[in-house]
Amino acid sequence: MNRLRFWIGAAVVGLLLVASWLYEPLAAWEALPACPFGPDPTFPATDTVCGRTLVGLRRSVAVGLFAGAAAAGLALFLSLLGRWGGAWIDGLIARGADLAFALPDVLILILIAFVVGLLRDAHPGFRPDALLVIILSLTVVGWAAPTRMIQRRLSTLASQDFIVAARALGASEPRVLLRHLLPFAWDYVLAIFLLRVPATILAESTVSFLGFGLPPREASLGTYLGLNAVSLLRSEWAVMVPALVLLFLLVIAFQWLGEGLLGRVQERRT
User: Fold this and answer.
1) What is the pTM of this model?
2) Distance CA 256, CA 199 (A)
3) In this predicted structure, what is the pLDDT of residue 111?
4) Which of 223, 232, 228 has its CA nearest to residue 201?
5) Are 56 and 221 in contact (CB under 8 A)?
6) 125-132 contact pairs (CB < 8 A, 24+)
7) pLDDT value of position 268
8) In the predicted model, is pLDDT for residue 11 greater than 90?
9) Quick one: which H or E segment has residue 141?
């Protein structure tokens, strides 16, 4: 079942990415039929609903992958730092992660966007890239859960016989971490990264829907839904359905991809 979920998730993610990358060149060559959902209400003269949602899908995936990788990488670094620094440092990092759990992610993301907006207004030369800002913001709010999971994984590995034997033979703590612990944790870290991607995509979509994410001309799926939310009041569901379906498929596919890999890691442990 884990293997099936993994491959189904991988196939769906692959198909969505191929569709998002091929749509624009095929549409430019007039190799595709007209978009059945019509023009985009926000930019009716230049964009169709199909084009905007598929390009938005690509941006949502980019945000999810980069922010998920940054959060997982930061979590791995902090977890290794905690193991190297001893119980006191490891416990301090764990308490910091627990404190981060108490903070609402969306509120922190909105606050960061608000502060960046204030800085931009106060300093006209301050023009940070919107995509970079949202990726860094999602990393700030997304490191806690991966850190606690990796800490528990490293703690479990540290009690294994081969780690105890390495220490008994005089291996230094950095060598134990890098040569013995880390190679057995890579697949687990990868699974956590894949599980972090859908959570990141949903968080970005939420703040973008509320108007604190990417600008309209660089719309993700969340930005597109927020810009066209008024269509729901006019019962124009066709404008919203493609983006909602793509967002649902994207999140579920990455979730299955991560759960499938994590399940296989746990099977190998048993």
Assistant:
1) 0.88
2) 13
3) 92
4) 223
5) yes
6) 130/213, 130/214, 130/215, 130/218, 131/59, 131/62, 131/63, 131/214, 131/218
7) 66
8) yes
9) helix 130-142
| Inter-residue contact 124 to 67 (CB < 8 Å) | no
Single-letter amino acid code for the residue at 217: R
Question: Are the C-beta atoms of residues 227 and 86 closer than 8 Å to each other?
Answer: no
Which residues on adjacent β-strands are paired with residue 48?
39
Q: Give the contacts of 209 (CB within 8 A, at least 6 positions apart).
A: 222, 223, 225, 226, 229
- What pLDDT does 144 receive? 93
Instruction: Report the chain's C-alpha Rg in angstroms.
Output: 22
Q: What is the pLDDT of residues 48-69, one digit of tens each?
A: 888 889 989 999 999 999 999 9
DSSP secondary structure letter of residue 38: -
Distance between CA atoms of 207 and 209, rounded to whole angstroms? 5
Token output for 95: 């308490």
What pLDDT, on a 0 to 100 scale, did the predictor assign at position 45? 64
CA distance 253 to 110: 27
Min mean pLDDT across 83-97, 102-116, 132-146, 228-242 is at: 228-242
Domain 2-20+51-159+185-269 is classified in which CATH homologous superfamily? MetI-like (1.10.3720.10)
Residue scoring higher pLDDT (45 or 33): 33
Are the C-beta atoms of residues 38 and 238 closer than 8 Å to each other? yes
**What's the distance, Cα to Cα, between the start and end of the chain in Å?**
16
The dihedral through the CA atoms of 27, 28, 34, 36 has a sign that is positive
Please give, one letter per residue, the 3-state secondary structure of 57-121. Answer: HHHHHHHHHHHHHHHHHHHHHHHHHHHHHCHHHHHHHHHHHHHHHCCCHHHHHHHHHHHHHHHHH
